[in-house]
Amino acid sequence: MSTLELDGELDFGVIDQLATAYADARATGTDTIVLDLSKLQFADCSAVRLLMQLAEKSQNNGHRLTLRRGPARVQRVFELTGTVDALPFEG
């Protein structure tokens, strides 16, 4: 299992960094990746799009992706976009 802890803002300016970190974690052969959103202060629609893409890749490639919930203001983005139930949040 590999955990990627996200901090600060997850927006258009940094999603490429997350995509690269995710690919690097996958390259180690780990079968489970946890994205910890608990320290995020902000997420935008580009973050939602990337997380949806990563979730789809995980389903298609036979590995597990889990999202650890972010603060209420971050979770609200997923609620407003109707993706909260489509993403693999813990518990």
Total number of beta strands: 3
Task: Tell me the series of helices and strands, N- to C-terminal.
Answer: EHEHEH
Which radius of gyration do the C-alpha atoms yield? 12 Å
Write out the strand line-up for the largest beta sheet, numbering strands in chain order. 1-2-3
Identify the CATH homologous superfamily.
STAS domain
- How much strand content do the residues show? 25-35%
Examine the secondary-structure arrangement and name the CATH architecture.
2-Layer Sandwich
Please tell me about this protein's structure.
The model has no long low-confidence stretch (mean pLDDT 96). Strand 2, helix 2 (45-61) and strand 3 (64-68) form a beta-alpha-beta unit. The protein has 91 residues and is α/β, with parallel strands linked by helices. The chain has a 3-stranded parallel sheet, with helices on both faces. The protein is 43% helix and 29% strand.
Q: Helices, strands, pairings?
A:
Layout: E1 2-10, H1 15-27, E2 32-43, H2 45-61, E3 64-68, H3 72-80
Parallel strand pairs: 1-2, 2-3
Any key phrases for this structure?
alpha/beta, Transcription Regulator spoIIAA, about 45% helix
Compact summary:
It contains three helices and three strands, in the order βαβαβα.
